[in-house]
Amino acid sequence: MLLLLLFLLLLLLPPLVMLWWWHSQDARLSWLVCLQHRVAWRVLCWAAAWQQKRLEQSTLHAGQSQQQALRWCLQRAQGPCCPLRGSTDISTFRNHLPLTKASQVQEEEGRGQVLPPTSNQYCGEASLQATLLGLVALNKAYPEVLAPGGTARVTPSSPWPYPLPWPWHALGQVGPTRAKDPGALLLEALRSPGLRALEAGTAVELLDVFVGLEANGEELAEAIAAGNPGAPLPGRAAELREALEQGPRGLALRLWPKLQVVVTLDAGGQAEAVTALGALWCQGLAFFSPAYAASGGVVGLSLWPKQPRGLYLLPPGAPFIELLPLKEGAQEDAAPTVLLPEAQQGKEYELVLTDHASLTRCRLGDVVQVVGAYNQCPVVRFIRRLGQTLSVRGEDTGEDVFSEALGRAVGQWPGAKLLDHGCVESSILDSSEGSAPHYEVFVALKGLRNLSEENRDKLDHCLQEASAHYKSLRFRGSVGPAQVHLVGQGAFRALRAALAPRPSSPFPPEMPRVLRHRELAQILQRRVVS
Fold it and tell me: What region holds the GH3 middle domain (predicted)?
């Protein structure tokens, strides 16, 4: 007991001395806040060191770790008694549980039991590791980011997949940590010019925040000047107005000159929003995602904040991950899955996830390419989602191919920046009557209010350059030219609002690029302005 008291004294003595000095210098922060922050940071670093050790051990013996993850899933399987509960033999497991596509599982189980929007599946070891190790890595790469008052979250959802208790709440977040009103969160962030990190649930949500900031800037400035909430800050309101008058490019750094990094959670369909943010509002800032979240759980950890965005370690713990090889861009249904240590560098695989909630070997549709290794586990880059493929004549235009073609086309539209897009096969909207089937493409742009016919035609030319199969179908007249429509502000925000309450929606929300339901496509169709 005496040794423990001495240890606590040694732990608290440095911050107490520093707090006394700060108080003598009339520092703004109270000694209690600083003490809480120091102790919380010590606790978090200790927990992160423990998780780092666990990750090292599990990735050094990835095969054994995956056996343990499978055993964990089988032992905690919900529903009827599982005949495999006492077995961890991979061959037996594969024979008893055939592969199932995520869409099939949702249809068969009716209420999205595999991918419930309010699922607690994120609160597993991978989520905890992503949060703890991500926070420590972020603070190492960008010192003072987690200092008191250094971070603000501007969306109700958090980019950190594991909800930490007291230690995180004491680590310098500006504003209420559990606030649900996006407007209140943004106001609190705007009142704090010394921010070093900006957080949002996903990049798409952050894009909505900045678009809304530009649209409602005067209203927000008036609220800050009037002191709603908090003390009146007329000087800060004037700074906001001046920053907005200079346009969107570099707006974040004008509002928060010390800002270093933007933190969002990576999920399907976010790359376009990251590109738009980096080119406009968040120009000059680094982006960091602590994890890649797919429907069913955290499947990738990011441990390298200063490395190129989009590299993730596939951890060997629960949920149980298998890799289904791809061959020549098509899925080989007969190909057996491989475990993480068997992944080959340069090859592409579809992720297969098994968790205890449904005990289904679910093909997620997320395709990854192995680009390296961390001990015995693969480091991957996410390439595309198989469920986001366009096909009106069997051409199978993948998400990555279409996005690249659209990006090249928009690059030829003077002054235009792509914010968002969605695609629909013409049969969904019955728009191919009297003409060949084609793609209906809805785009949200910055810097361009009308689309000329010449601009619209450029997308079809870029698609033909990107896909030989599409080009041959266009040459024969089997497929008509892609039809491009410009939608007004708020169109995609309305689409996301409609997606949120759907029972089969994954959490966090992936951004669909191909819409399969007429009512969703009509949300964009009703908001076409050009």
Answer: 313-385
